[in-house]
Design a protein that fits this description.
Blueprint lengths: L7 H8 L18 H11 L2 H16 L3 H13 L4 H10 L2 H8 L5 H9 L3 E3 L2 E2 L12 E4 L3 H18 L4 H4 L5 E3 L5 E4 L14 H9 L3
Antiparallel strand pairs: 1-2, 1-3, 3-5, 4-5
Helix pairs in contact: 3-10, 4-5, 5-10, 6-7
């Protein structure tokens, strides 16, 4: 399956809040808040539908194809520890997601574009692979070019305004990351903890969804 390019608000109505998908905070119209509807639907639906919804939430938030998500599931399944927790750590330590969590892009899709256009350096090397897996100790900087620096500053200013309106959980910089005062240099301090993950999800249901397929 290819990466989703359709209407994003439709997915938010169906799955709930997806911070990495929308540029602005999405407010439901009166009478259309899906929380109660989603709960009623889950009570009536089969277990498969519930697991599918959680898997889709993970996929659309991080902007992955089905094939990519299956590959991450296989890696997590072979690793030590809880498969669901390892899966979330693998996704959170992607370079595009780390740029999003640092506030250098409005969405994960926007962060992916910054990486593809070669604006970002990791440990002094240009990295143009959004799925690059960052490790503790990695230094993330902006390319030493005025156009790249101006672009990142612009995005940081927009992200700062956006995050004032969202929940405290997303407003704070996660503990596994740190950023300089000029916001041109950041560092990965450690592997992310489960509590710091920027998406509300039941990862155990995602593991159950794939358990019969992998």
């Amino acid at each position: 399956m290819s990466r989703y390019r359709g209407p994003r608000i439709k997915k938010v109505y169906r799955l709930g809040a997806l911070p990495g998908l929308l540029q602005k905070e999405f407010k439901y119209r009166k009478g259309r808040d899906p929380k109660k509807k989603r709960l009623r639907y889950r009570k009536r639906s089969k277990e498969y539908s519930i697991r599918l919804a959680e898997k889709q939430k993970l996929r659309f938030h991080y902007g992955l194809t089905e094939r990519q998500l299956v590959r991450y599931m296989r890696i997590a399944g072979k690793s030590k520890g809880s498969t669901g927790q390892v899966l979330l750590q693998l996704l959170e330590m992607r370079l595009d997601n780390i740029l999003f969590r640092l506030g250098m892009a409005l969405t994960i899709r926007g962060a992916r574009q910054l990486v593809n256009h070669r604006h970002i350096l990791v440990n002094g090397r240009i990295i143009d692979i959004p799925s690059y897996r960052c490790k503790p100790g990695d230094i993330i900087t902006t390319k030493n070019k005025q156009s790249s620096k101006d672009l990142i500053r612009k995005y940081i200013a927009l992200c700062t305004r956006k995050r004032k309106k969202v929940s405290k959980h997303l407003r704070k910089l996660p503990k596994h990351l740190s950023i300089g005062s000029k916001k041109e240099k950041a560092q990965v301090n450690k592997i992310i903890d489960r509590k710091e993950v920027g998406l509300r999800i039941k990862e155990s249901l995602v593991v159950e969804y794939y358990s019969r397929q992998i």
